[in-house]
Amino acid sequence: MRRTFRTVVAAAVTAAALVAGGTAHATPAGPGVTGRVLSRTTANGTDYILREVTLPPGQATGWHYHDGPLHGLVKEGTLSHYDSTCETDGVYRAGDRIQEPAGPDYVHIGRNLGDTPLVLVVLYVLPQGAPFSEDAPNPGCSFE
Question: pTM of the entire structure?
């Protein structure tokens, strides 16, 4: 499985420039946040979806969680990641990997605080038919 994940992510980074774009179906994301599906397959009731997500400078994903684990790679820019305590739980730069656990106990937001676009390649491992993310209210942080 580990080797397969690396192979899928490597293929996605290579193929990203060849796939048509679309609007992201994320939680209340900032203007201009987009996502495009690079690959999708379903096996044994689990969807494996590879997406490229782009956040313009100054924008964010909105507060959310996922119904399954997420594995990502920062392709360009810097991701500032915050948990529901309003504290950063990581700053990820180009080439860095990120993993997010599943469930409503892991509400978080991704922000692009830089001056260049943030591009992520993300593998979603979700129950079949589940959305990419589930909306969550702001847990009381001074930012969205």
Answer: 0.81
